Each structure stands twice: as C-alpha cells, then as structure tokens.
C-alpha cells in the first residue's frame, strides 16, 4: 500500500506516541499515583494493610512474591519483592502531598497517611524501635513480617540508612511516639549506649540483641563499617529529635555523630577519610560522593535547631575542600577519590551519568551543590553546579538505562536550571521528561527500564514522577512550588 503524506499524518495522530505527547505531565503523575493507591496495597498474607508495594507487574498489576530479575547493579538481597519499603517511597511522600494541594482531592494524603501509619505499626521492632526499611530490610506482604531479601529465617535483618534524608518530620506528624522510638533505636548502630567515641557500624540488627552487655545496648555487628555518609544521616536524625524534645541526651548524640569525621580530617586540606578502621583505599581516601553527602546532611542538621548552627561551617568546609582537590581543570572532570594530602589517589574521573544502579555519578554532587547555593548564596557552589551541568548537558541519552539514572538527571537538571536561571536547561529537563514518558510509561505505572514490565520503587520511579510534577508546576507559572528546596532528596 502506498503511504501518502495524509495517511502518514493520520497514522501519527492516532499513534500511542502522539497520544502520549498530547497529555500533560500532571496526567502521568496522577495516573501513576492513582494506580499505586488502587492496585498496589497489601492484600496478601493473613494481615492486610495499607502499605504500598515496592514491586508491581504492570501486565496484570499483581504484586509478585518472588522471581523478579534485578536490574544492572542491583543486589538481589537489597530489594522489596513481595512487600514494601517506605524508605524507597520518600519522594512519593512529597508527590502525594502536592497532588492533594493541587487537586483538592484528599485521597492522596489519606492514602499516604494510612500507608505511613501501617508501616510504623507493622514494621517497627518493639524491642529496638528500628523500622523495617532502608538498604536491606522491608515488610513482606506474604510472610507478614520484616525480612531481609528472601531470607525466611531472618538471621540478620540489617538496618541501614540509604541516601535520601529520613522523612522524620512527616512520620512525626503521623505518630510522634513511634518516630521518637525509631530515632532512639539508631543508637543500636553504636558500640554502646554510653559511647564516648561514637564509632558505629552502618548496620544494626533490627530484631534482637545478639550480644547482651551490662551497659544495656550492644553492637550488633563487631568491627568497623563506619562509612562517612551514615555519620551525617545519624546526626540529622538526632538533631531532629533534639529539636522536638529538648532532651540533652539527643544533643550529646548529635554532637558526637556530627563531629566524628571532623576529627579524622587533614587540617591542612580539610579532607577527611571515607570510613573509620577500613584500610582499603576506598576507606582511607577522601571520596567526592561520600564527603558531599556528609556535608549535605550536616547542613540539613544545622537547620534542625539553632544549637547546631556550627555544623553549617563544618559542612561548607568539607564540601569546598573536596571540590577543590577533586576537580581537574585540564580534564574538565572530577576525581572520585583523592588522598588526604590532596594528591590524586585514583586517576579515574567520576562518571557523569551512571546508567545502572549503585555507582555514584556527578548528578549526586551537582544536586548537593545546588542545595548549598540555595541555602548559602555562596558563588562557589553555583560554579560547581555550572561545571556539573556542562558535563551532563554534553551527554547524549543512551537507549539502555535504568529509571533511577533518568530520574536523577531530570532532578539535577531542574535544580541547575533554577540555580543558573538557564532556560535551555529547562528545555533539556523537558526532553528528559519526555524520554521517560516515551520509553518507560506502561499506561499505568512507570517501569524500571525500557522493554520491562516491572515497576520498582527502589529504582527511582517516584523520583522521576516528582520531576514531572516539578515540570508541571513550572509550566503553570508556579516556580516557588517547583523549587529545589521543596524537592531536595
């Protein structure tokens, strides 16, 4: 059959791509969230709940019990197949709140509040207070209990924070007593409840005390594993709790955790190690992503209470130091690791965009710098954002990728556009948003990679959706509501 221009035009107008392009961003945000609320709740096992599934098969909207192949870079044991991990849905908290504000429909905040309440009810350990979330553990719908991976015996159940800022403020609104207990439980990462060193393990046992000690608390795992970002996450948690209670004990824990890596820095360069008691290069050297995250959480900690204003100075010192010694002007890129004397430890430049999951890239550092600029107004951070934005804009988007990389690129591009007041970056953000719509929209939910039927919250689906919502707000002349200060990770 001869294809005439008219026939070609008609076929395009009725094609899925054209129909997708005619819908605005809010349509995709609402449809995605409506499907999660309507089809993603826990209706399995003996105990039904309002928790939302972390993995959904979009072909029939079922919640698979097992046998979902992980994507590139994802460890099989660190997923929530067959259940829910609230930490993976930190971005969803913001999205659902904003949807109710935009539409006036209370179903979004109602579903969110029910989700959070059931999550704390069913996943909080009554002894330790720790929540069943984070890097390794989740609440399994079919087993009606907290699990680590697919381990039915629950021998380890390792509690570990991940990169997003813990949503303590929101959880406090839902149940202040449970939230207080959850933050107090963070002490189980440490060697003792009366610690003076504040050395810790990034892992804690969620479920029980394996080694009783006369001091009442125990270190659940012997050894080190005091990686740098966790110090900042712990400090943020304790400063939040001090701000709510005024209890001097939480001030002690705030100061101890927030100052830990300051003690290990080289005072001449202000570079600090990446892990205490780890002799490997990745532990003894300064890490660009690690130091950036510690600085980020310290800056956020300084905002939790006036007593911690001094953390801002430490945060800025750390970030300026790692930026100074990591940037190579000739190669126009950042080193991932440098020695504490400022010399290059590894000549490999950090990736601009990691298209899988797990490895750090420049997007993370760029988002941290953007937040610092908005809070402080220091042009040093604006220049960091410009460097990162130049690198990102030069990258052609690949055909093969995992959702989290696109979500991170979209969020950073929006942050950079705001900081640099750059309309071209806004247009680039629109391009990234449309790539996700064209390649990852299943008609019901956003899936984790092209040609894949699974939605998986761990892999940035809701972070991407929040990016689309920011685009919608910008299109409707609401830049203040789209601001990075409202959508920071």
TrEMBL record:
Chain residue ranges for the region called Disordered: 63-82
GO CC terms in record: periplasmic space
Segments traversing the membrane: none
One Pfam family per UniProt: Pectate_lyase_2
GO MF entry, a single one: carbon-oxygen lyase activity, acting on polysaccharides
GO biological process per UniProt: pectin catabolic process
Protein name per UniProt: Glycosyl hydrolase family 76
Organism this protein belongs to: Larkinella terrae
């Amino acid at each position: 059959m001869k294809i005439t221009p008219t026939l070609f035009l008609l076929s395009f107008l009725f094609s899925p791509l054209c129909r997708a392009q005619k819908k605005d961003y809010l349509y995709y945000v609402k449809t995605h969230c409506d499907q999660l609320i309507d089809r993603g709740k826990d209706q399995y096992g003996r105990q039904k709940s309002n928790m939302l599934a972390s993995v959904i098969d979009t072909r029939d909207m079922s919640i698979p019990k097992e046998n979902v192949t992980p994507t590139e870079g994802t460890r099989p044991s660190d997923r929530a197949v067959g259940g829910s991990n609230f930490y993976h849905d930190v971005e969803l908290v913001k999205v659902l709140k904003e949807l109710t504000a935009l539409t006036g429909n209370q179903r979004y905040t109602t579903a969110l509040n029910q989700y959070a309440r059931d999550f704390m009810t069913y996943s909080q350990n009554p002894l330790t207070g720790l929540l069943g979330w984070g890097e390794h553990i989740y609440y399994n719908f079919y087993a009606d209990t907290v699990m680590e991976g697919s381990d039915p015996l629950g021998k380890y159940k390792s509690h570990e924070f991940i990169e997003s800022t813990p949503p303590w403020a929101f959880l406090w609104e839902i149940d202040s007593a449970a939230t207080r207990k959850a933050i107090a439980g963070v002490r189980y990462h440490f060697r003792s409840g009366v610690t003076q060193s504040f050395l810790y393990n990034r892992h804690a046992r969620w479920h029980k005390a394996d080694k009783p000690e006369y001091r009442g608390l125990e270190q659940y795992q012997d050894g080190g594993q005091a990686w740098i970002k966790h110090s900042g996450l712990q400090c943020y948690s304790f400063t939040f709790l001090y701000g709510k209670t005024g209890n001097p004990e939480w001030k002690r824990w705030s100061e101890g955790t927030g100052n830990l890596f300051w003690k290990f820095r080289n005072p001449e360069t202000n570079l600090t190690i990446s892990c205490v008691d780890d002799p490997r290069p990745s532990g003894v050297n300064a890490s660009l992503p690690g130091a950036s995250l510690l600085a980020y959480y310290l800056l956020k900690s300084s905002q939790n209470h006036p007593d911690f204003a001094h953390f801002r100075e430490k945060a800025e010192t750390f970030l300026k130091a790692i930026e100074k010694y990591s940037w190579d002007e000739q190669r126009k890129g950042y080193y991932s690791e440098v020695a504490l004397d400022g010399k290059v430890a590894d000549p490999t430049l950090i990736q601009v965009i990691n298209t899988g999951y797990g490895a750090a890239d420049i997007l993370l550092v760029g988002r941290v710098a953007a937040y610092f600029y908005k809070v402080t107004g220091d042009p040093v951070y604006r220049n960091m954002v410009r460097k990162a934005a130049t690198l990102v804009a030069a990258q052609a988007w690949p055909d093969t990728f995992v959702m989290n990389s696109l979500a991170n690129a979209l969020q950073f591009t929006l942050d950079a556009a705001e900081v640099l007041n750059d309309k071209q970056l806004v247009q680039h953000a629109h391009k990234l948003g449309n790539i996700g719509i064209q390649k990852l929209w299943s008609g019901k939910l956003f899936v984790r990679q092209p040609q894949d039927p699974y939605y998986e919250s761990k892999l940035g689906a809701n972070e991407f959706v929040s990016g689309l919502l920011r685009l919608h707000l910008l299109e409707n002349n609401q830049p203040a509501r789209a601001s990075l200060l409202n959508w920071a990770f």
